[in-house]
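quick one before i forget lol
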Amino acid sequence: MTIDHRNPVLRVVPGPTDINANGHIFGGWVLSQMDIAAGIVASRRANGPVATVAIDKMEFIQPIHLRDVISVFAEVERVGRTSMAIRIEVIATRDRGATDIKVTEALFTFVALDEQHRPRPVEGT
């Protein structure tokens, strides 16, 4: 499945407090941005609240640098009865927009939640 890179779900610029000892952006910071974007897509698809239940196939391909503009792309890969798999790709734009680099990707699984925070069927499945 190829993600449409025309419209990111989220676009963020990491700050100086997001840098690790190697001078790159913390992996946990990147992961949180991915979870936010995936949650937006999953909540829209489920038409209600969702919870992250798994992250599969996480791969850090390239480091993210300070001053990179991070674009997080997400799309629904599959829908089950109560869960959804959301494919995430993160592209770093650097050199004042001259270079785009895929820096990480993952597959997030979400469960649709009812008012009691229990799994519920995903609408439209």
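fyi The longest helix spans residues 27-46.
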